[in-house]
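Researcher: Structure prediction, please.
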Amino acid sequence: MSVQSSVVQRCAICVYGWLTICAQPLLRRKLRRRGALESGYLENIPERFGHYVQPAEGHRQLIWIHAVSLGEMRAAAVLIKAMRQEMPDLRLLLTHGTATGRAEGRSLLGPGDVQVWQPWDTPQATANFFAHFRPRLGVLMETELWPNLVLGADEGGVPLVLANARMSERSLKKAQRLAWLARPIYGRLKAVLAQTQADAQRLASLGAPVTAVLGNLKFDATPDPLQCQLALERRRTLERPILMFASSREGEESVLLQALTQWPQPWPWTVLVVPRHPQRFEEVAQLILASGHRISRRSSWGQDLGGMPCDGSSILLGDSLAEMALYYSLASAALLGGSFLPLGGQNLIEACACACPVILGPHTFNFAEAAEQALSEGAALRATDLPSALAQAADLVQEKTGRASERAQRFARGHRGAAQATSKHLQAWL
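Model: Predicted structure follows.
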């Protein structure tokens, strides 16, 4: 690297640090706004700015895992399970950026583990984080790189690994436009464990030290067996099969409701909508009611699903957390949220693990390789839009042989192994 390039990079990082400091009031305002919908965002706010109540002593043995949101935390959960098998006395430091990620992570804490918010990416907050906890290893899940966080780890002597790493073509183009900031950050990682060869090539083009291609950790996740069993028992009593709109995103529910108006009543299915973000539960409920349909919410069914209607007279709303295995096991097929608008799609692996075949929209760039694998192995179908997806779903939910479900489950089981492989790679840094 030339002296001129080095100077430019240092100046760029200084400018970035100054901008993050100036943006702190905006972050506080955003937290208050989100907290009005999800109270979890109002918990322990000082942690966001590098102020901790946990004792500072004895943290040197902590392994730090950062899983920003719910999806990353589910991948991290699989890895943590594998690591605990290899290292029974493992002590964790878990950090998150969202309330759903933090809630999911809380259930994985053991004796001696610590959980805090990810520090806001200012030089001071990240310096406080490393000075206080002094982890012996840092593991960032999937895509979550913050410049000052990476620089703080490098300066503090904390080896930093990007695990289950992925990068779409779209993300690569964005990073290339910010190469003056992205390249020095990716270059300071100690190792990158990529999901696919395509991810590895994109990450390496930014200077990331890709050391292995290990597959996707989410294939190793096991659906909650109690949820699956409860759903299958209830499913036998339903008068119509369930078509699920899984992890729907803003704007997609309106398109679905409009497409449903083209289908004569009675529909060949009962529709179940499960929004991706819990703060939108009420918004989606009002959309359904405004469209002239009755609604039945998961929160009113009871623990044993006894209050769930079985005659298809209402649109069902999945307004609960940590029950995706229940919803997928109730459904005969699922439309993949985030893929019917240019949002990149959501994780389809969990649906397939629950033997629920998936219909994808045209936009799956966030999970391109998994989507193509599922399509090639018959675990998923592709539709150009929601009306055509409903047409495919009409055939799929009435399929009696169970072959589509078998193909979905076989696909999910056939790509396991990333958890143990990742755990072994991380042990090399210990």
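Model: The longest strand covers residues 242-248.
Researcher: Thanks, that helps.
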